[in-house]
Structures are given as structure tokens and as C-alpha cells.
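This section describes the prediction task in plain terms. A model, or a person checking by hand, is given the sequence of a single protein chain and must write out its three-dimensional structure as a string of C-alpha cells. No templates, partner chains or ligands are provided. The sample shown here is typical of the held-out split.
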Amino acid sequence: MLKLRNAARRLATAGCAAAIVVAAGLGAGGTAQASATGTTPIGTFEYDLHGLAVKVPVGCFFTHSVEGSGKRISSQLAGVDCMGIAATFSQFCNWRIDFTYADTDNRRYRTSRGRTHTECKGNPLRRNAAQTLPRYGKACARFYVNGKLRATQCHFITK
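The expected answer:
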């Protein structure tokens, strides 16, 4: 799992190169490739944990990876990585990661709701089962802490 997390971090660091590779793959003829990795920063926020204010500083990122071909998703994962001081002090309690799917008109048709983890963790991670989507559109990962949405990262699944 650490090896996969490090690979996702390297891909996130090389975001421009990955975007070019993905764009080239989607523009090429043949079978559509749905493989992509994207990262979005999680802004600083505070939440209440049993009457104690917990502050998450700047420096955490939410990464979402999708692998597959066409509407077939062979693997999907999403997780949080923190750098700098945030890596030392960030703990996420009462967290969950949902995977959602929407059609090309942006109508959500499926949600794979993750379980809420009551334990505190510095690097939440969730994998989702392989599946075939009924239609093209987008696949998103959503990160919640204490019931509040904190980050979303999406990938378009197109022909």
C-alpha cells in the first residue's frame, strides 16, 4: 500500500505531465483509456471532536486514481497525503470517502458510500471494487470529515 501511495504522490507531483499523457490517450483512436490520477489541495479547516477543536493546517492533498478502459473500471482508490508540518500534526477523525458516478449531463446515478471511520488517521485511504459503468460521464471521490465534505476530485470517463 505504501508503494501505491508513493506512486500516486509522484504522479500528483508531475500533474502537468500526467494531464498531457491522459489527454493524448483520450484523443487517440481505439479503445478509450480511463486511467488517470488527480490531486486537489484540502484547505485548512477546524472540526469538533468531543468538544475539542481539531485544526487541520494547509499541506494536505486528496488524490483519486482510476484505472481501466472504456466504461470498465478495473481499480479505483482515493486517499489523503499531507506534507510538511501538516504531515506531523494532521489527524482526520470520523472520516469517510465516497465514490460517485454521474452521466454526461452531470446527473449522479450511483454512490458507493464508504463507512465512517471513527478512529483518527493521518492518511485515510479507500479502494473501490472493479465495475463496469452503465454510461459515460464522470467518476468522483469525495472526502468527508465529521460529516462535512472537505474535498472532491473527479475524472471524466468518455468514449
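For orientation: Residues 1-32 have pLDDT under 50 and may be disordered.
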